[in-house]
# Entry
Amino acid sequence: MIRKLNIFLMLTSAVAFVAVYGLKYSVEEIAKSKTMLERQIEHQKGQLSLLEADWSYLNQPGYIQPIVERHADALNLAPITQAQFGSLEDLPMRPVAPDTAAMTQLFKSLESGVDPADKPIGGK
Amino acid sequence: MAVMTGSEAPPISLTGARKYRGDLTRTRIRWVIVGLVLIFAVVGGRLVQLGMVVTDTSIEGQSREAITASRPAILDRNGLEMAVDIRVPSLFAEPRRIIDVDDAVEKLRTVLPDLDPKWLRNKLSGDKGFVWIKRELTPEIEDRIYQLGIPGLDFLTESKRFYPGGPEASHVLGSVNVDNQGIGGIEEHIDKDGLALLQSVGIANGQNLKPVHLTIDMRVQHVMREKLLDALTRYKAKAAAAVMIDVKTGEVIGLVSLPDFDPNNPSSMIAPYDGEPRMRFNRITAGKYELGSTFKTITIAGALDSGAVKMTDRFDARFGVRFGRFTITDFHGQNRILSVPEVYKYSSNVGAIHIMQQWGKDNFRAFMTKVGFDDPLPIELPEKTTSYIPKKFADVTAATASFGHGISITPLHMAAAMAAFVNNGVYEPPTLYARSPEEVVALGKRFISPQTSLEIRELMRLNALEGSGTVMDRQAQGYRVGGKTGTAEKVVNGRYSASKDFNVFASAFPMDDPKYAMVVIIDEPHREGPTTGDTAGWNAGKTTGMIVAGVAPMLGIAPNFDKALDDEMVPAAIR
# Structure
């Protein structure tokens, strides 16, 4: 009886030994990958903060204005003046009936290759 | 066996061999137990001792948390970053864990060739627990050093403050020192508000810090700074500053004071400007000045509100007012009898004195207390100064104070009062933090009646159309700006100097429904050209107009050239 119990206990401890051994190494493995992941996260957070800083730097009005001024001639840019503002009242009301004559004229002009939309309003 | 004898001898007791051995074993076991207990006691004691050891994790006297602690991002009212934290890796070594110093030095120098090998060897040898090798590296360098796989080298992520706007909002933001503590501006305020405590207990890291939303609009801030820089060069002035307030909420939209500094380089805060030290302070909150004739707005507002003076009252400005040896006269002398709007329009000192006298000097002094000129400003910035106003007014001081001389207040005081006057008379304390409608209602304080507010708006717009604000109005056509100039002579060696002026323009726009109030100051301006003047209208006024023309479209204010609007704002009766 005692003998059987002893054999059983010995077997259990042998199994336990192997299991603990395996567990120890797998924990070490997990710990290692955890540190790696943590490092990676830290790293990416660092890079993210740099990118965010870059982004906000590039969005500063103080950064954009010199660029706009440098390319103002090429892009035909100028600060907006008060006279360039319009209001809703300046827009003509919708005509009661479609203006057929004007439509025909528009289509004709489009067919001949002239798009009135290319010309600025007011024709200047 | 013992031989039996006849005599009765005491019995001989003999210990049997088995018993003897048994006793011996018991003693041995006892000794073994004692030995074992001793060994376990030593082991246990050592364990306790090891448990008691506090490992020194501080780094050159600073806790690890303090170094890695971060600060909340600071955003403007549109969510644009004004200050952010960048996380930068810093390389350190634990010399006691380094096995081969020469090998480590050699490998490290392949990535960081600018390190001195002798210095590096000294650092890495020895038994220290922590030495910095190089701080604030880039993630790329960090990666390459990591790939070298040298034991005993590691990285610590430090937080570094970065201000993407550079000097744009320097006086609002302040700066931080190397230990990540706020020095000046809103950064210092955030620390006092509890961040310093969070940092010291080590829970201030990126995740649990909410960004701080300011009321500054970086676009407005930029335009204001541009125009003021332009003014500095055009008028060859010593300094210039401006502040813009939302009159309905008291929120500060823009605050610029030139010369300024770069928060990314805190030492530039105290750098001399033009050879002079102490020039880069915040003139809006920490400078007090005699704001000259802009003060007539205060005098007239108070007098009208008291009922002692009416818009239609007329005042004799034909002669100067005498106080003993002094006679106060007008700069733009009209030398006739003037109505209240004319006193304002022609900026008559004599008229202002008469208005104040009709109202009463004690009432005048009490009104200054009412509009908050006695108290320091409630704004969040730590750089603040209190006003200089005598507790009791003598006749002369009251007279000079009525046109803004002999008393000093900060430009922000003036801006806040202007904002209240045009906002139907309701004052909102200036702030840099967003305010909810409930707070606006709770904090609102009535300075003057809505009727007086309307009259002041009429006067301010009138001055822009016909008075000293015409240069300004030409710049900001259509935006219905109203305002008052102030040209004060500076005190040099205890006397007023005729050549050195301090110019102010206090304004609000659009006058038909005021939304923003602004004060612009220019210190010691010069004439721009031979055809221009050097009074405030020509410099502070013009700059105001240019700023308004630049920012009004961003603030959603459309120009309106309708003449009927001006006729309604400034009725013919007061023209």
